[in-house]
């Protein structure tokens, strides 16, 4: 973690957090009237929309070559979504496909009044695009709660099928000269999908090759063009949705320790059971370990030399877990108290400790820098989506001049606040940075959260001084009390 040299560049443009709350770190949202329509200053010369439904969430990537058809330079590109869609969009990022070093573009959420049926993400180009010039954008985002099971109820040993609804034409606020849409399913078992007439090269869309289906290429389509289609595919895995994740990171200078704790409220959004769960049938099938849509275990990769891992639910400690610690990585393997089927809820808590030397450094110019993952969580082949995430970084008492930087997409951060967190042996309470995000997925595991802060000398020694003073006062009181004569002398005659 050699990031000390990068601190001036990372934090020079960020304001100091000095109050209990601050708006400068919150997601930028621009209010526009419902009559707003993006000016027709761009054209999509060529567009490829890749929709990956290989995990429990949909990942969408739009690679488009945009052309400025206006007479003046332009730097604002809009992407439309329906009201329902935009509430489930997360992790929105835009890059220059031909220049990876350009970094993510600035993105804002555009909000209309309640009567507006269409909402927009506004993409700010790093430099205005000159008239007639072209630029290739790579737009990536995720859709949570993207599927519905069909059938909605199945037996516990039946395969699970999900339905994904989408538009064959990519959402666009501009005319698109040429486009195609690719669907990437988790397997070739796709029994039902929407078919439509092809072109001179293909008699029927989609062209199917294994688990990949391609609609198009299509000729010019106007802005807002839409053609609804559905795909029904086998997904015999858990559909994991975390409605609430609270992640606490507590830093101790005196103990040389960073303590992590994560509290989950997890749902399985797959098909419900058509009959009562049979424990006997479940145990019988475990001998040959068949494919199942039930959740049987969760694996949490942790940093090397993590220690003291624990795992419990609302009932208490769960012994069906295994913690392995190696030189390069630690792994916490957990098994829920019972298999989790569609429609079932499972709240649980995990935690562990780690050496502060792995995450905490002294900055060159003074102060401290903490570098931890913003999101860790289980690493599952089927993927995990998160609706609401609260990351609480509890710093030592007296910490001030707090700044943070994270590689989590800016549009996913809803707020960042500083509060006082009081716990055992505290005097005035510890400074806590609380960051809230929404609609994240496990693709963002291990993206950095860097926090810089100062601890004044007096604040750093306040606690040991108070502990020493308390113990000294206790000994003095014990000595004084010990010297008092409590014996009742006999009455003299």
From TrEMBL:
Membrane topology recorded in Swiss-Prot or TrEMBL: Single-pass type I membrane protein
InterPro entries, per database record: Ribophorin_I
Subcellular location per the Swiss-Prot or TrEMBL entry: Endoplasmic reticulum membrane
Major site of localization recorded for this protein: endoplasmic reticulum
Pathway where it operates: Protein modification; protein glycosylation
Domain of life: Eukaryota
Protein task: Subunit of the oligosaccharyl transferase (OST) complex that catalyzes the initial transfer of a defined glycan (Glc(3)Man(9)GlcNAc(2) in eukaryotes) from the lipid carrier dolichol-pyrophosphate to an asparagine residue within an Asn-X-Ser/Thr consensus motif in nascent polypeptide chains, the first step in protein N-glycosylation. N-glycosylation occurs cotranslationally and the complex associates with the Sec61 complex at the channel-forming translocon complex that mediates protein translocation across the endoplasmic reticulum (ER). All subunits are required for a maximal enzyme activity.
Binding partners and assembly: Component of the oligosaccharyltransferase (OST) complex.
Protein name: Dolichyl-diphosphooligosaccharide--protein glycosyltransferase subunit 1
């Amino acid at each position: 973690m050699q990031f000390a040299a990068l601190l001036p560049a990372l934090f020079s443009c960020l304001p100091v957090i000095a109050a209990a709350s601050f708006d400068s770190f919150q997601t930028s949202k621009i209010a526009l009237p419902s009559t707003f329509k993006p000016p027709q200053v761009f054209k999509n010369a060529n567009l490829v929309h890749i929709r990956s439904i290989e995990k429990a969430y949909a990942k969408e990537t739009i690679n488009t070559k945009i052309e400025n058809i206006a007479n003046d330079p332009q730097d604002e590109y809009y992407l439309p979504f329906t009201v329902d869609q935009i509430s489930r969009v997360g992790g929105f990022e835009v890059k220059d496909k031909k220049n990876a070093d350009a970094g993510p573009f600035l993105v804002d959420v555009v909000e209309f009044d309640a009567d507006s049926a269409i909402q927009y993400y506004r993409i700010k180009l790093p430099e205005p695009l000159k008239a007639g010039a072209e630029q290739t954008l790579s737009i990536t985002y995720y859709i949570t709660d993207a599927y519905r099971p069909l059938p909605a109820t199945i037996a516990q040993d039946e395969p699970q099928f999900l339905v994904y609804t989408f538009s064959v034409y990519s959402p666009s606020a501009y005319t698109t000269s040429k486009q195609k849409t690719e669907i990437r399913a988790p397997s070739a078992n796709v029994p039902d999908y929407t078919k439509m007439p092809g072109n001179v090269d293909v008699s029927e869309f989609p062209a199917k090759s294994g688990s990949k289906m391609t609609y198009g290429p299509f000729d010019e389509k106007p802005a807002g063009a839409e053609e609804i289609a559905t795909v029904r595919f086998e997904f015999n895995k858990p559909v994991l949705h975390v409605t609430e994740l609270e992640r606490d990171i507590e830093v101790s200078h005196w103990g040389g320790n960073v303590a992590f704790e994560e509290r989950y409220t997890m749902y399985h959004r797959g098909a419900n059971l058509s009959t009562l769960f049979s424990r006997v049938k479940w145990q019988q099938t475990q001998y040959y370990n068949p494919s199942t849509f039930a959740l049987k275990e969760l694996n949490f990769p942790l940093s090397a030399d993590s220690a003291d891992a624990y795992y419990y639910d609302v009932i208490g400690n769960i012994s069906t877990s295994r913690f392995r610690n190696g030189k390069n990585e630690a792994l916490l393997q957990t098994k829920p108290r019972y298999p989790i089927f569609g429609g079932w809820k499972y709240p649980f808590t995990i935690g562990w400790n780690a050496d502060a030397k792995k995450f905490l450094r002294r900055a060159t110019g003074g102060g401290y820098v903490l570098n931890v993952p913003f999101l860790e969580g289980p690493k599952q082949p089927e993927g995990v989506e998160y609706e609401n995430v609260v990351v609480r970084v509890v710093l030592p008492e007296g910490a001030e001049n707090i700044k943070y930087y994270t590689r989590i997409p800016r549009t996913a951060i809803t707020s960042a606040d500083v509060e006082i967190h009081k716990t055992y042996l505290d005097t005035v309470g510890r400074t806590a940075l609380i960051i809230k995000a929404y609609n994240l997925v496990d693709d963002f595991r291990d993206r950095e959260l860097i926090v810089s802060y100062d601890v004044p000398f007096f604040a750093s020694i306040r606690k040991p001084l108070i502990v020493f003073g308390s113990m000294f006062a206790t000994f003095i009181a014990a000595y004084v009390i010990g010297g008092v004569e409590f014996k009742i002398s006999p009455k003299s005659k």
